Amino acid sequence: MNGSEEEKLSSSSESEGEYDADAEEAEGESGSEPENPEDRVYAMAPTVNIQDESAVDVESCPAFVYLNELFYEGKIPGTRLAELKAKYVLLHDTLVSLQESEIQLLQDAKRFSVKLEEQQQELEKAEEFPEGATSEVSKLRQQYLRYFNEYNAIQEREFEIQYRLTSLLEDKKLIEKDYRRIPKASDADKRIKALRDSCEDLRKETTQRRLEIKNLKDDLFIRHKRLTKEHKELEELFRKQEELKDELVRLQAIPIQLGKDMEKISRRMQDIEKKKIALREEAQELVDTSKKLETKCTETTMEKEDTIKEVEGKKALLESKEREFNTQTKVHEMNKENEGTAISERGQLEMSFRNVSNLKQKLHDNLSRMQREKEKDLRTFKKMEMQLKIAQESLIQVQARHERMRLEIDSVPKEDGAILERRRELQREVEIAKRNLTQEKASTESEVRLLEQCIAEEEQVVGAQEHYREELNNLIRMTQLKADEREQKSKDFLKAQVRKLPTGI
Fold first, then answer.
1. Which of 137, 180, 197, 290 is deepest in the core (most CB within 10 A)?
2. Which PANTHER family does the protein's record reference (predicted)?
3. CA pair distance 359, 367, nearest whole angstrom
């Protein structure tokens, strides 16, 4: 056992020595050989020069300066200025925190890149280890590498947790800042009270300014009225001045106008003399024409007398024609009156004819209805006759049956009580049949009487229809006779008027 353990230890020491020698040779070769261009290239963390925003004074930044200038110029109110400054401070703080986190991430990236290079070198060394070596050192090495990998994973998780913690802390700081910026209830009440006081002061000031504006408007209106009045007076003065100027010009032009008027009058006198001579000549001509007109007047008077005589003859003829026309108009009016009476009588006759036709239609309807009822009664009568025949036949059968039963009873000895009972039943049946027969006879008799009554009413209706038809024919004949008589009278009257006309003319 001891010998075997010693052999194992010696073999392991020899293998370790060989491994160390091989590693030294590999390092020497890598150090002596130049760099290969095909070697692997690893990512390096960039070096960025970022301005440290935390060292910058926020109050002296250009944004704050520009906002203050706008506020002093009156372009933005104080509340808007405070709001914008608070937003800018918040953004500046977030920028600072982002820059810090970015720097931290860059440093972590640089550190991780260095670690990655170291691990890559270790992996390369592990790949150079002989494949067949399965010593205890290699096992320990593998176990070490596994634990190392687990440790790295734990560190990564811890870094991630730390990063989340820092981000949460930053969010907490931002929330606390926002909470500190929120005004408290007492401050808000004070601000509200101050704002209300300022609003009340502004309201009072506005009312005072409105009163001042109203007073100024009244003064302005009074001044405007005064100015308009003065302007009108000034215009009146200017108008009077213009009138005086016109009057002066007119007075200056009077002598010249008088000379012109004298010349016009002299020319007019000359024209009048010429016209006077012409008028004398025209008067002489008029005297000659008047003599000629006198001769013509005498001729016209003679013609007038002749025409008067002719007019008187025409007037007499016209009067005779007017009388003839009057007689003709009277005849025409009488004819119109006769025609109106004839039309009225014709209307009355038409009305009576319509009434008679309506009555005829009603009678016809009643007749048709009664005929239908008659047919219905005839059908019922026939039906009742059939029933009567059937009843008579049944009566004959009952009588025959009765005779047959009587014969049977006579043939049977009289001492039997059942036969007597049977006989009584048969007698009761016979009595019932007789009673039914009498009832049927009574009903048939009543129906026969009703049918006879209907036939009598139908005959009356037919007689009334004939009577009304005769009356209608008589009325038509009478209207025709009256119309012929009126026409004959009108003709005779016209003939008489025509006979009278020549004697009157």
1. 137
2. CILIA AND FLAGELLA-ASSOCIATED PROTEIN 58-RELATED (PTHR32083), COILED-COIL DOMAIN-CONTAINING PROTEIN 146 (PTHR32083:SF34)
3. 12
Residue 380 tokens read as 């019922």
Three-state DSSP at 144 gives: helix
Q: CA-CA distance, 378 to 374, in Å (whole number)? A: 6
Kindly state whether residue 268 falls inside one of the protein's structural domains: no
Cα dihedral 473, 476, 481, 484 sign:
negative
Neighbours of 324 (CB within 10 A): 13
Question: pLDDT-based confidence at 6, cuts 50/70/90?
Answer: very low
CB 437 within 8 A of CB 395: yes
Full-model pTM: 0.24
* Pairwise CA distance, residues 99 & 53, whole Å: 8
In a domain, 153, yes or no: yes
Please state the domain count of the chain. 1
- The parent domain of residue 150 ranges over 141-182
| d(C-alpha 100, C-alpha 105), whole Å | 9
Amino acid letter for position 433: A
Whether residue 386 has pLDDT greater than 50: yes
- Evaluate whether residue 155 is within a structural domain: yes
Q: Compute the CA torsion angle 435, 436, 442, 446 (nearest 10 deg).
A: 160
Q: Give yes or no for a contact between 113 and 82, defined as CB atoms under 8 angstroms apart.
A: no
- Please state, in angstroms and as integers, the Cα–Cα distance from residue 422 to each residue in 234, 252, 405, 427, 428, following that order: 157, 174, 10, 9, 10
Interacting residues of 394 by C-beta distance below 8 A, sequence separation 6+: 433
Summarised one tens digit per residue, pLDDT across range 29-68 is 434 343 443 344 444 444 444 445 555 566 777 888 888 8
Indicate whether 147 belongs to any domain.
yes
d(CA 193, CA 485) in angstroms, rounded, equals 123
